[in-house]
Structure prediction request, 335 residues.
Amino acid sequence: MFFINKAFILLLLSQIFLLFKKEDLRQYAIHGYAQGTDYSIKYFARDSIVTKGNVDSILMVIDSSMSLYKSYSLINKFNASSNGIVLDPHFAKVMAKSFEVYKATKGKFDVTVEPLVQAWGFGAKPIDKFPDSARVKELLKCVGMNNLSLKGNFLKKQKPCINVDLNGIAQGYSVDVVADYLINKGITSFVVEIGGELRIKGPKPDGTSMNIGIEGPANSPNAEPEVRHVISINDGAITTAGNYRKYLQKGSWKVAHLIDPKTGYPLDNALISVTIYAKDAITADGYDSPIMAMNVNEALDFATKKNMEAYIIYHRKDGSVADTLTAGFKKMIIN
Prediction:
């Protein structure tokens, strides 16, 4: 006589169903160009339920809101206004987060840095020379988020010369918007990457974690950046800020694209790059640049207090390159 355990049979059937369900999932890849950079999306599903057209439409709407390179964008309308305008939901969400990061970093993150970014050659218009000290001093009069206020969806400026640049946070927000679109479509395993900023959700259908390479400058001068570590994660976002890729050079003087809103000059400190792991990409992207303005110990302490993980590459006093990281980031490294 045989006794049948119905609960066991149901559990076995459900596992078999899940196995076949997972085997039905295929990997789909989407590649494109938006926001002045490449993007790449990989996801697992039974069908191509998200297309390149879907993604391009989402990013086009965000560009129409916050791209300085689109003459018709809402951000350019704000910058041209004398006292402010009503924002769309995308712009308003990014500004709300920007105020949060500005306050938490005590002004190291400041979206009103646009006049300085433009003056140093990293804005939407080309320049023929770097600003002198008098010009920097003059531009600093139009910098400071204390000159902005957000009431409802109305962003008010206290001075007509206040202009905003959201390049330090809007790309992370774009990653989150695309990732949330995939989640709403029922996709539970994906990597969304725009310009090197990533949002990950896993594991893969076979149960393995998502592996992400962490790039940094090569040890030898003038060599291409290299993958320094590989991390394994199943949920969250990874973004990197650094001064080794994007810079201008005048003679032997390298001008980094990260501008200190307090001094008006490009950052020139020990940090080379900061990679942040956070729950979402807007948080990681918003904090990676201002953390670059900190010293190594301050950066590690700040990231930990904000429930983020950090991997930092920096110059020692003798000029050699070293790295350090938070305990949580170390646990993610598999190679």
The two ends are 54 Å apart (CA to CA).
